[in-house]
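Q: Sequence in, structure out?
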Amino acid sequence: MKILMTLFDIQDYGGIINHAENLAAGLKELGHSVDFVKLCAKHKFGTPRTITDESLPQYRQLGTGLFFHQAKGWWWPNDNKVAYLDETTRERFVDNCANYDAVLWHIPVPTTNKDNAGVNEWLALYSGATKNIAIIHDGNMPELYPHLAYVSHYFHGMVCVHESAYHSGTCIGLPRKLIVNPFDITPQPNAWINEFGNRDGFTAVQVFKAWKRVDDLIRAIPKMSNKETKRIGGAGIEYRYMTSQDKCKPKYFDEQGDRIWDKALRYGMAYAGTIPTDMHYSMLRQSKLQIDPSWSKKYSKFGAHFNRTTVEAILCGAVPVATDLGMKNSEIFKAGQNYIQLQAGSSPQDFADVIDEAVGNKAQWEQIATNNKVLLERFDRKAVAQEYVDFIKDNSSCEVGQENQELIERMLKKLEFFGIWQARAGIMV
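A: Exactly. Output:
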């Protein structure tokens, strides 16, 4: 197959990078060809970000062939960009799509950022593809992408990367399939050598967003009695608020008026900043546990919205710790079998008690680690890529959702932002 991957111009770091890179690599390992472009709501691109000799070691080239930085995102050459406000460029993209067996949309519709206000030219981007596949990475699809319904007649189907995304997609009238995030499970031959006694403490690496709840972990660290290593990594808007000397949010101070970040540092937190994947994996291979404190009531009402970090932990022989809401009703990850469960919204002391128990419980750790060795095979990028190929070829056995009134009302509000007022028959009034 000849496959095109694309996404709209978004903040392109985090989980989508790792998904796209591994999916592209898996497809290529199966013998398929893959190209990748970004759709931009700008007439001019300006000068691409320069990769200096000094910064080059921080960039990687994997499945897509593009250079990417774990914190800064992809480095996009102008040849890999499509300025869809330009009619000639847009038409060239549409014509080119017809040369592919499928177009995989990592972000299937544009987001409501300032560049897209009053912009409706994106409606013309879908018509050239033989088969368009929407990939849903978010757990609350009807809130974020209700306008997918407006162009759903252009799509062959929808792939959802976790259970929350899958169940939230019932309101879109498209065949959908749960296909998990792809991983390269081969480069960790020594992951399982460091067993319980040779590991130490925990690692937690996250994008610091509000729903990731990193502050729950930060508050718990001073309450922990164990003296093992407490490794924290990542960055994002909440990190800046949490550490700012003059703009720290009130919620990031404790009852005594201490900044929770500063207090955690005094009690042994080791902050590594934004780190590349290989360093993250190295930290996980040294750790007993990987902690994902994230939870969202909006996401969990649809089901589990587990993060890539959970699988990365398993890949490196660490045992995941996750919240009950983050893993809600998961058919893949079972509490006590595949991960250690935290109660969402636990007090700092209760959070600390769970970690203290886990770092000292060898029997529990060994049982979960053994179970996860088997589970890991499901996430192999080559196997995941084959699921995409099968879905592209035949989606006839997949569940199909149905548009509802709530979705239509959400969609109307989104379309108003883009300056779209005329309805597709049967969708709008």
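The mean pLDDT is 89.
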